[in-house]
Specification:
It is a single chain. The protein is mainly beta. It has one domain: Elongation Factor Tu (Ef-tu), domain 3. It is 0% helix and 58% strand. It has no helices and 10 strands. The chain has an 8-stranded antiparallel β-sheet, with no helix packed on it. β4 and β5 form a beta hairpin. The chain is globular, with a radius of gyration of 11 Å.
């Protein structure tokens, strides 16, 4: 199955390795995602998901979430999940 876009990075906090993502689809802890911008991409597991500085296990379309990532995700990066 093809990957499905679930969000876009609106901000990256370099010191803590966290991306703020505006969701266009649901996301939950444990999901495997691909972070893509231009010809750069990497895979990551969602191990930390926060809404309004509170840990949550899932988030829905339209929410702004913070996710911990193993590599830098530039503003505008697309977050995709395998469906």
């Amino acid at each position: 199955m093809a990957n499905k876009e679930v969000g876009k990075v609106s901000h990256w906090y370099d010191k803590i390795g966290v991306a703020v993502v505006t969701l266009t689809g649901p996301l939950k802890v444990g999901d495997q995602v691909k972070v893509r911008r231009g010809d750069q991409e990497f895979d990551a597991d969602i191990i930390s998901l926060q809404v309004d500085h509170k840990d949550v296990s899932s988030a829905k379309t339209g929410q702004e979430v913070a996710i911990k990532l193993p590599q830098k995700a530039k503003d505008g990066s697309i977050i995709e999940i395998a469906r």
